[in-house]
Specification:
Number of helices: 15
Strand content: 15-25%
Shape: globular
Radius of gyration: 25 Å
Number of strands: 19
Structural class: alpha+beta
Helix content: 25-40%
Distance between the termini: 36 Å
């Protein structure tokens, strides 16, 4: 998730996007796609980030057809890769975690993070223009993202593009294959304009994808003759990948056919179940943190959900819903939230202390609002964490605390007896007003 200095308005818009969509016009398949395409869930979390070449390597390991490729970190490596691969045509792609690379611009003025060439001698000079420079696209921060690796791949012509995905669906109680013969474009547009071109096939988790199911989907995707059998094999292999790596979604767009008669997975997006990290250590070790907000990565190490924003009132809250409400009330009272930070339900005193350290590292923070509604969370634990953090950090910005729920009296007593300049609040509205007022006074 790339949200460094995200504005509150953009955060809210992204979070509510799926709720604002007029679903009355959506058929069941469209609703499935709508849920699949939600940008943010109700609980912000840091998703595992894989570069394109890492996703291709995973797919290759599960016998999925992908382009031949090599990864280069400099022009010399790229030149060697091009001459070793001996392709009719090469595609050179800057590896960053953002879309729109082809239309991006590098900090040295070089245009485009994706290039095609039939000359192997041209590959090295192209990579030299990319590596070590920042690439700016519509999805990167304003200053761009430093390119450290480039993928040199074999370029294929595509005769026809289709869409294929396997995802977990609550309504079906398990995984579902979603496919469309209209690939290579925004699948939501397909669902909206031509819902009859969206096909779904529920998968029995005990038996997996059967050959008959795979052939049925391949037929729905309009693969003909030998290509239909080949596509069916790829669908079965894709489910093997989905199951083996504890994915929640694997999306291939386009899932295409070449003039030479090959079915190829040209581009992929893979989402993983964070709860499976304990048994997917090799996969999660691939996580690319180089483009991540340092505070976000720091929070992840402490099992905290943090998203930096562009305001000046830091928030420390338990529960995503309460965090959203807290930001709303701050905004309603004339303030601007500096972050989203959810400490979760099983937070410890140490985690509270580290949360304070992380939100205080933002130089734009001029006040801190703690809003805790203790159900699972013990208010006394929060209070001890707050006092320890304030005492060890010598906090200088105003601190407003609202506690309610489990052990609230004990928590309030801990704060009162600490002798620290902590402003108590009776409810959320009172807390937000006091936090905003502290910036003035």
């Amino acid at each position: 998730m790339r949200m460094t200095l995200l504005s509150y308005e953009n955060y809210k818009m992204a979070t509510c996007r799926s709720l604002l969509r007029p679903i009355s016009r959506l058929a069941s398949q469209e609703l499935l796609l709508a849920k699949q395409a939600t940008v943010l869930t109700a609980t912000p979390a840091r998703w595992l980030n894989l570069q394109e070449y890492q996703s291709k390597k995973l797919m290759h390991d599960f016998n999925l057809n992908v382009q031949r490729f090599k990864v280069a970190e400099n022009a010399k490596e790229a030149d060697a890769a091009a001459h070793e691969m001996k392709c009719r045509e090469y595609v050179i792609k800057a590896q960053i975690l953002a879309g729109g690379r082809g239309k991006g611009t590098f900090s040295n003025g070089y245009k485009g993070g994706v290039h095609l060439t039939q000359d192997p001698k041209a590959v090295g000079p192209m990579v030299e223009q990319m590596v070590g420079n920042k690439l700016t696209t519509k999805q990167t921060p304003a200053g761009g993202v430093l390119v450290q690796k480039v993928m040199v791949a074999e370029s294929y012509d595509i005769d026809r593009e289709t869409y294929l995905a396997i995802l977990l669906d609550r309504d079906h109680g398990g995984p579902v294959i979603v496919g469309s013969p209209a690939g290579g474009m925004d699948i939501e547009d397909v669902a909206d304009k031509t819902p009859e071109l969206i096909f779904t096939e529920p998968i029995d988790i005990l038996t997996g994808v059967t050959h008959a199911q795979a052939m049925k989907m391949a037929k729905n995707l309009n693969f003909k003759g030998p290509l239909q059998e080949q596509a069916a094999g790829q669908i079965i292999n894709l489910y093997d990948l989905f199951k083996s790596v504890d994915a929640t979604q694997v999306e291939i767009n386009p899932f295409g056919e070449t003039p030479e008669g090959r079915v190829v997975c040209f581009d992929a997006k893979i989402n993983f179940d964070d709860n499976a990290q304990f048994r997917q250590k090799e996969v999660f070790a691939l996580d690319d943190m180089t483009e991540t907000d340092a505070r976000e990565a720091d929070a992840t190490n402490w099992n905290l959900n943090y998203i930096g924003m562009d305001g000046n009132i830091a928030c420390l809250v338990n529960g995503a819903g309460l965090a959203m409400a807290t930001m709303d009330i701050i905004k309603l009272n004339g303030g601007v939230p500096a972050n989203f930070l959810d400490v979760g339900g099983n937070v410890s005193e140490t985690q509270v202390k580290e949360a304070f350290r992380i939100i205080s590292s933002d130089e734009n923070v001029k006040a801190i609002l703690v809003n805790i509604f203790g159900g699972i969370v013990n208010c006394a634990t929060i209070a001890n964490g707050i006092t320890n953090a304030c005492q060890s950090m010598h906090l200088t910005v105003p601190l407003v605390v609202r506690l309610a729920g489990t052990n609230v009296d004990a928590g309030k007593k801990i704060l009162a007896d600490s002798g620290l300049p902590i402003t108590s609040a009776e409810d959320l509205d009172d807390a937000a007003k006091k936090a905003v007022a502290s910036l003035i006074g």
